[in-house]
Design goal:
With 260 residues, the protein is an alpha+beta fold. 46% of the residues lie in helices and 11% in strands. A five-stranded mixed barrel has the order 1-2-3-5-4. The radius of gyration is 19 Å and the shape is globular.
């Protein structure tokens, strides 16, 4: 825990709380989630980070798929998915629900759990209050949408740079760069787990789930060079440079997909 504090910038070399550390201490959140939230200030997407943090805090009960309406549910969910990953999909779900005046009819038509969304909205309101207490302000209307996917993903990576994985040569699994160095699969529920698109070479995941295999759940695609900007103290330049030049596995590139 102390090492994570150093890595996240919450502790200085003497083990004392930094300004960032004092801010994190005010947030009743997992340190990585809190760090992501605060990074929204730097990347000008605080409102989006508050939404994503609240949706993650609800758990995995957002989407539902009735046995007798699987095709309809899958079609609805596909329309909500974001090309850059699952956390942006969660943001998209919340924003569309908000734009529909938080209507239960929208949730019903899109096979989304209304109860979970209401809980996320309550959590978000609490987070906004906590952010104001540590002098991080949201846009005037509190709901301004940043369409800058790069900024949003960099803010997420600022909290979860521990959880980086790169695609193995097989094209089937990812190698977690730090910690256990385990090989993991994309969770089947991920929007990036697609037969129509090649898997992203680099990902950040929110959590690992162990069932019959170990899966990375709630993932986003990232660019390796971001790690030199976000966590130069944690990743050596050689770790990023080597993998930047990796080619897509045979049969996994866009040309291969087009040929199918």
């Amino acid at each position: 825990a102390e090492y994570m504090g150093y890595a996240l910038g919450a502790l200085n070399d003497r083990g004392q709380l930094t300004k960032l550390g004092r801010r994190l201490a005010e947030l009743p959140l997992d340190p990585q989630l809190g760090r992501m939230l605060i990074a929204g200030e730097k990347y000008r997407c605080v409102a989006e980070m508050a939404t994503i943090a609240s949706m993650l805090s609800v758990g995995n009960g957002i989407f539902f798929r009735p046995k007798d309406r699987k095709v309809q549910a899958d079609t609805a969910h596909k329309g909500l998915k974001h090309v850059d990953g699952d956390l942006l999909t969660l943001l998209n779900v919340y924003n569309q629900w908000r734009d529909a005046d938080f209507a239960s009819q929208w949730s019903y038509e899109n096979y989304i759990q209304q109860r979970s969304l209401k809980k996320a909205r309550d959590i978000r309101e609490q987070l906004v209050g906590l952010l104001e207490r540590i002098e991080i302000e949201l846009p005037a209307d509190g709901v301004a949408d940043s369409e800058d996917s790069v900024a949003i993903r960099k803010a997420i990576t600022s909290g979860y740079f521990y959880n980086v994985a790169r695609l193995n040569a097989s094209g089937q699994t990812y190698r977690v760069l730090k910690g256990t160095g385990a090989d993991v699969f994309l969770h089947p529920s991920s929007g990036l787990c697609s037969k129509d698109e090649p898997p992203p070479p680099w990902i950040v995941f929110h959590e690992l789930v162990l069932t019959s295999k170990e899966f990375a759940r709630n993932v986003i695609r990232i660019e390796p060079e971001w790690l030199s900007e976000i966590a130069p103290h944690y990743y050596k330049p050689s770790e990023v440079a080597v993998t930047e030049k990796r080619k897509m596995p045979k049969g996994k590139g866009r040309a291969a997909v087009a040929a199918q």
